[in-house]
Amino acid sequence: MKSNLKSPVYVQVEITSNCNNECLHCYNFWNYGTEIRRNNLSIADWQKIAKILGDNEIFYVTITGGEPFLEKEKTYSFIDSLIEQNVRVMINSNATLITKNDAKKISEYPIESFLTSLLSADEKLHNRIASSKSAFQQTTNGISLLTKNGVNLAVNMVALKLNYRDIYRTGKWLHDEFGLKNFSATPVCPSANKHKNLELSHEEIFEVLNQLVSLRQDFGMNIDVLEALPKCFFIDYAGTNSSEIIKTFSKRMCTAGNTTITIGSEGDMRACSFDHQSHGNVLKEDFRLIWNNMGMWRNNSFLPKECVSCFVSENCSGGCRVNSKVKKGNYCEPDYLSKNIIKEEQAVFFEEKLPNVSMTSKMSLVPNIRFRQEKESIFLVIADSMRFIITNEKGLKVIKCLSELKYFIPKNVAVRFNLDYEFSREFFKELFSKGFLVYSE
Fold it and tell me: E strands within 178-245?
């Protein structure tokens, strides 16, 4: 589904383009010869960018790089500025530079999550991929400090030819060693020609997904893949855990330029962190104008023609557009993981049926709901960076009311607001399916 939002929901900000690792799979375009690394913005510039993001009602920012903790003063100042603007903050870091003081300081901020990367439980293999002899020891030390200080930590493992058989072992080690619950393994996204020898085949990716499912089955870990896989990738797979794999990993869509953007280390605004194309500089041009000029990412201009007649095209982004640009020279070419279009009889495997909701049971709204007005009588309501709905004034009024209640009974709410019973049932089903509601004891 393509949005027509007045501004993004979520922004990744590269506080610096420098990094103390040189990972073989690094997606940053400046890391493979098309640009030199840049790091010219001052603390005052980042404060201005935070103000711009706040003025444009951005809900979430992930501070990333390069490695943001190479610029600790700028990073902490930017976090302060974002919080002042009522923007929720997440961090993406290799954790190699985290000290005891950093871990304590981060734990005292209202940080939504801290994402780091471990490339293998095998120290030599991790160091080889990170191109650093000390990377494993430094990263695991950072993980230890962050977990001891209660930071909401997640670890992503980029899956390559070199390490894709290590997913289960690495996840288990993180669970046993640090009590880690949140683990993802994301197949490398080829964002440069030099990645060709690192990318996985269809069969190897399914092996990655099976290992993730086993981690959930064996240890109750929260598992994920952080990039969108085209839905047709899953067609005809009949191997181990096939139904669970489809249910778990086929839901993501590419959000580049749609609900998310990236701001580079000099203020350049890009649709995707993997993409080198700048659409303007937020310190020199109007944010909303740059966003509007990125409309081709939101109107299906880049959707491959092969996808147009697919029965799930409305709920599939067709995979990675930057991947296609790098490998085939055109954003509009099919993702290399795509297969044949999904036929009507196959679409049933990807249907997300709204769960039934008891209209007479106690329910609660999840905390920290936020909203903004998109246009007259139309509102965007946010539960977190991945969960949001569009509603009208009446729907917003109901949600605001629910946020003030410890618990409620949907049937009573429908009566209070004079809602049609069938409409109210569908409304509560949607809220529940999007993770806005939970059953209350």
Answer: 182-187, 222-224
Bridge partner residues of 268 (DSSP) = 281
Q: Positive or negative CA dihedral for 217, 218, 221, 227?
A: negative
| Range of the structural domain that residue 165 is part of | 10-300
- Among 160-164, 208-212, 326-330, 403-407, the minimum mean pLDDT is found in 326-330
| SS3 assignment, position 277 | coil
User: Is residue 426 assigned to a domain?
Assistant: yes
- Kindly state whether residues 250 and 376 are assigned to the same domain: no
Residues 35 and 67: their CA atoms lie apart, in Å, by 17
Residues 6+ apart with CB under 8 A from 155: 115, 116, 117, 118, 143, 174, 180, 182, 183, 184
Q: What is the dihedral of CA 349, 351, 352, 358, to 10 degrees?
A: -100
Residues 278 and 399 in one domain: no
Whether residue 317 lies inside any domain: the answer is no
Q: What is the DSSP code (8-state) at residue 408?
A: B
Same domain? For 390 and 269 the reply is: no
Write out the two tokens for 307: 């996808």
Dump pLDDT digits (tens) for 292-309.
999 999 988 898 988 888
246 with 150, same domain: the answer is yes
How many CA atoms lie less than 13 Å away from 232 in the CB half-sphere? Answer: 22
Give dist(CA 145, CA 151) in Å, integer.
9
The span from the CA of 264 to the CA of 193, in Å, is 22
pLDDT of residue 86: 97
In which element (H, E) is residue 123 found?
Answer: helix 123-130
Whole-prediction pTM: 0.93
Convert the pLDDT of each residue in 325-362 to its tens digit: 888 889 999 988 888 788 877 877 777 776 788 999 99
Rounded to whole angstroms, the Cα distance separating 334 from 319 reads 8
- Pairwise CA distance, residues 53 & 3, whole Å: 19
Instruction: Tokens for 233, please give them.
Output: 């990738």
Would residue 318 count as lying in a domain?
no
Residue 265 backbone dihedrals phi, psi, to 5 degrees: -70, -5
Same domain, yes or no: 276 and 425: no
343 within domain boundaries: no
Give the integer Cα–Cα distance in Å for 334 and 230.
Answer: 10
Q: Give how many domains the chain has, as a whole number.
A: 2
Same domain, 179 and 36: yes
